[in-house]
Amino acid sequence: MNNPLINPGLGTFVWMLVSFGILAFILIKFGWPALLKSLHQREEAIAESLNEAAKAREEMKTLVAHNEELLRQAKIERDDMLRKARMAGDEIVEEARAKATAEANRIVDSARENIEYEKLKAMHELKNEIANLSIGIAEKLIRAELSDKSKADALIAKEMERMQLN
After folding, report:
1. Which of 57, 111, 123, 127 places its Cα 20 to 30 Å from the Cα of 155?
2. What is the pTM (predicted TM-score) of this model?
3. What angle separates helix 149-165 from helix 32-146, to the nearest 10 degrees?
4. Which residues contact 81 (CB under 8 A, 6 or more apart)?
C-alpha cells in the first residue's frame, strides 16, 4: 500500500501546496476580479432588464387603459351615429308620409272637383236634352192641336190675350 496518491510523501505534499498556492494566487489576482466583474455586469443587466420589464408593464397598463378609453369613446360615437341615423330615417319617413298625405289630399280634391265638374256638365246636358225633348213634344202637340184651323185660331187668340194681360 504504498500508493503515492493515497499516502503522499512530505515532498509531494509541499509541492502540491506550493502549486495550489500559486494557482490560488493567480486565480485571486487575475481570475477573481474578472469573475466579479462579469457577475457585477450580469447583476446590472438583470436589474436593468427587471427595470425595463417594469417600465414595459407600466406602459402596457397605460396602453390598455388608453385602448379601453378609445374603445369606450368609439362605442359612444357609434351609438350616437346610430341614434342620429335612426332620427334621420324617422324624419325621412315622416316627411315622406306627410308628402304622401298631401299628395293624396290633392288627388282627392282634384277628383272631387272633376266629379263636381262632370256632375254639372251631366246636369247641363240632361237639362238641354230635357229641353230638346220638351220642345220636340211641344212641337208635336202643337202640330196636332194646330192641324185644325179653328183650334189654332182659338189658341192664338188666347195667347194674345194673355200677352196683353202681362
Report:
1. 127
2. 0.40
3. 120
4. none
